[in-house]
Amino acid sequence: METTFLSSNNINLFNKSCLDILRGEIQSKKIATGHKSLDRHLGGGISLRQITELVGNSGTGKTKMCLQLCLNVQIPKSAGGLEGAALFIDTRQDFHPDRLQELARDLEKEYKQRAPDFQAAKMLQNVHYVSCPNAVQLMATVLSSYRHLIAHPNIKVIVIDSLAFSLRMLDDGAQRFELLLELVESMRRLLREHEVAWVVTNVLTHRCIGDQFHVVPALGEMYSHLINERIWFSRNGHCFLGKSWKTSRLIKDSR
Question: Which terms under GO biological process does the entry name (predicted)?
């Protein structure tokens, strides 16, 4: 007769109901994007414990939103924010601190009355930066994020700009896909253990489907099932929300 051993990890296996999950989602913390209509559709902004992808061609505003999120995550709790910090992982070697400083000064002015101590210089100090010029260093940085979060537990958002850039440098398609799966699994493990959001950028590419070429996000269709949210950026300044272009919906900025 077999004996079943119960550990402290599975004794309470069935204690969570669907109502508990729903309440947790409603009460989950968000990082405002600054795009009012997009925040409304996302229930307040980018969710913690999720992977959110920003996809679009170069110059459509993906990096700007990443920088803005690195600042918005620091909004004081007294003003309705998370009062956290950010980690910016740069694979394109295109990070400009002057752009971040400009956005920080704008945010400082916006919250001057509600949070006078919320200053641009402090915001810049709370954005940690790592340069990853190749896929090996990107993998090492994602794996070491666990240690970085232990040393800096106030980090609430980790940005990878861009996830596709270094992976597309690999000529071996099988190796590229295997590394992508390892990256996403490492990111998901971190989400299970820490209250943090992953925000990654991706580019559009042409792919032959049937006898026609279509513009689709890089990294493949299967990858789209591994992320939680996908925000599309267009050159005319519009944002769209949805996993695929066919099912995406236009988000008009109400500012």
Answer: meiotic DNA recombinase assembly; reciprocal meiotic recombination
Q: What is the pLDDT of residues 213-241, one digit of tens each?
A: 667 888 888 888 999 999 999 888 888 99
Per-residue pLDDT at 236: 83
In angstroms, what CA-CA distances link 180 with 63, 108, 138, 183? Answer: 21, 37, 11, 5
What is the Cα–Cα distance from 202 to 143, expressed in whole angstroms? 20
Q: Is the pLDDT of residue 28 over 80?
A: no
Query: Could you tell me how far CA 247 lies from the centroid of its own chain?
Result: 21
pLDDT level of residue 19 (50, 70, 90 thresholds): low
Strand partners, 212: 209
pTM (predicted TM-score): 0.85
Q: β-strand 30-31 against 155-161: which pairing, if any?
A: unpaired
Joined together, the tokens standing for residue 186 give 């490492």
In order of their start, the domains of the chain are 30-251 (3.40.50.300)
Paired residues of 23 in beta bridges: none
